Amino acid sequence: MPSSVTGATATATATAPARRPRHRLSRVAFYAHLWLGVLSTITLLAISITGILLNHKRGLGLMPDVAHSPTAAFGDAIPLERLAYAALVAAPPDARPAWRPGDPVDLALIDRMDVRPRNGLVKVRLRDKAATEVTVDLASGTVLHVGARGDVFLQKLHSGEALGGPSFVLLSDFAAVALVLTLISGYWLWLAPKWSSGRGRTIAEDP
Amino acid sequence: MSLGVTALLVGLLVTPLVLLWWSHHLRRRSVRQQRAFWGAITGHCVAGALAVTFGMVPPAAWSGSDGIRGFFGLWALLLFPVLAGLAAALRRP
Asked: Which of B15, B20, B26, B77 should be substituted to probe chain A, the one whose Cβ sees the most A Cβ atoms within 10 Å?
């Protein structure tokens, strides 16, 4: 038998036990990559599309963008209750079906009030289907804008909450973990054979 | 959890698992099973695209009965692969 072949056999025998755990790891990486990739595809597709839409929500007109400067000092701002009342009066009747002007402010109708002192405004978001947002001047109570927040539902869809509550955030978490594991296993499947062949060549070239 | 959301979760997680399991040693399976598999894969891909599209319809645009959105957004991922797989299996060669 030629000495080169004998040498190669000896090298293979010597490196085989060292390669075995890596081969097993590659097999696990391959199946993790395959199964997690297939399982999370549609979820990740939805998360990616909603993520892109949310990144460009202003440009796409999904949220009202009211340019405004303060008309008085922040200390002169009118009480929140009056701002909420002004917002409810200005809101479309569909957004506040049972409430009429003159009634006390119904807190059940209001989701949140986002005060922007540097812009001199408050954004009052209602709890209707369209997530109507009324922008009100902090100092005068003048309604600056009334419009729907299209990004609220997209945000809930992005997190998984839209499917039925906060517990569905776990679905989004699963997709994120699956993506990370798929990335890691993908890198392993790409680099491990190169590393193996590189080491094999080094051992073979070693006199 | 509503029946629709359960159908969505089954279509989203269980159907791909079943299809993956089915794809192992596909060449050793009968021609009818192979056709059913490719039908189910096609059905699932189409359903995935439809579910993502219809799922993004904002709540303000939802109708009272919400039938079309509910069907494509929640049920398609479960029903399309089954129906497309059956159709492909029963198709004459």
From this structure: B20
3-state secondary structure of A126: strand
Question: Considering its fold, how many domains does chain A have in total?
Answer: 2
Q: Are B92 and B27 in contact (CB under 8 A)?
A: no
Give the model's pLDDT for residue A71: 87
Which B residues 32-61 touch A at CB under 8 Å?
48, 51-52, 55-56, 58-60
In a domain, A63, yes or no: no
Can you give the residue range of the structural domain that contains A7?
A: 3-56+158-205
The complex scores an ipTM of 0.85
**Which of the two residues, B49 and A14, has the higher pLDDT score?**
B49
pTM: 0.79
Interchain pair A129, B5: CB under 8 A:
no
